[in-house]
Design brief:
By secondary structure, the chain is α/β, with parallel strands linked by helices. The protein is built from five helices and 13 strands. The protein has a nine-stranded mixed sheet, sandwiched between helices. The radius of gyration is 20 Å and the shape is globular.
Length: 293
């Protein structure tokens, strides 16, 4: 055999091993819905659309029985997925299903908490630890502190009071506080999110929490007067949790800022890294909302 043919053979052999690595496999997403005090029938398809259209994910949906119905048979196979997206706020799950979610995340699974999913399961201590901060659901100072950004740093506020509040809906600026994290790296330091509910006074254990971005809950719109967490992550066992209180309605989910953060957050929760690093050309600026049809 000539040296040329040997070189060609070696190159072809090497390609067998290089090619699969260069093409990132699609990550498997499970969206959980079926109950919510928000329009889950409207928002789940939007979440599914943006994740699928990115080309990075395949998406399945697990829909629970309706409120008040028998939940004992609701048992999503969390372990079959790279990341679970919760769009759920409703009745308690069975003990087995709760344990399955804990085992999944503790063992290294990814979890994404969207808007009112942080209202769920207020009296389930491990859920509160997993999501870091939550609202409503009977939460108060016994569940943990408020977390705010004050004087250039994240602070834990132990003031007594209920967990969960928002003023009237309006567009608001999201301010990046940690631009080194893969979810926020390269994003503008401030961007204007489309009209949404700005959750404030969330509280919880806030263990292993990394607040990536905040928004000012202006008293003029009924807010707390504090810079409140809008994008954050939580470590839980070997797993990663991405959490955003944004996303009240289908309309708010059409914000390009939300779309970008959702895609990056889900990928990070699944893998601990982000390959979707390009910032869209239509990304919102500090003073202009940008939405897609």
């Amino acid at each position: 055999r000539t040296m040329k043919s040997v070189s060609f053979a070696l190159a072809a052999y090497a390609a067998l091993f290089v090619a699969p690595v260069s093409a990132a496999e699609k990550l498997k997403v499970l969206i959980v819905d079926g109950q919510n005090n928000h329009n889950w029938k409207g928002t789940t398809p939007v979440i599914e659309r943006w994740l699928t259209e990115s080309g990075r994910f395949t998406v399945d949906v697990a829909t629970s029985p309706a409120k008040g119905q028998d939940m004992s048979g609701f048992a999503p196979k969390f372990a079959d997925y790279d990341v679970v997206v919760s769009n759920y706020n409703g009745d308690e799950w069975s003990p087995a299903t709760k344990q399955a979610l804990l085992d999944y995340v503790r063992g290294g699974g990814g979890l994404a908490i969207i808007h009112a999913a942080n209202n769920s399961f207020g009296n389930w201590p491990e859920y509160n630890r997993m999501i870091g901060l939550g609202g409503w659901g009977g939460r108060n100072e016994k569940h943990g502190p408020y977390v705010r950004f004050r004087d250039g740093k994240i602070v834990r506020d132990e003031t007594p009071g209920p967990g969960g509040h928002h003023g009237r809906q309006h567009p608001f600026q999201v301010i990046v506080r940690n631009g080194e994290h893969p979810i926020t790296r390269g994003l503008p330091p401030i961007f204007l999110h489309a009209q949404d509910e700005l959750y404030d006074k969330l509280r919880g254990p806030a263990e292993q929490i990394d607040v990536l971005a905040t928004a000012y809950a202006d008293p003029a719109t009924g807010g707390s007067g504090e810079h409140e967490p809008m994008i954050f992550t939580v470590g839980y066992g070997k797993g990663r949790v991405f959490h955003t209180p944004m996303g009240h309605s289908p309309e708010s989910m059409h914000c390009v800022g939300f779309i970008t953060v959702l895609r990056r957050g889900c990928e990070w929760a699944a893998r601990g890294e982000v390959t979707q690093t390009e910032v869209p050309t239509d990304f919102p600026t500090a003073d202009a909302v940008s939405v897609r049809p």
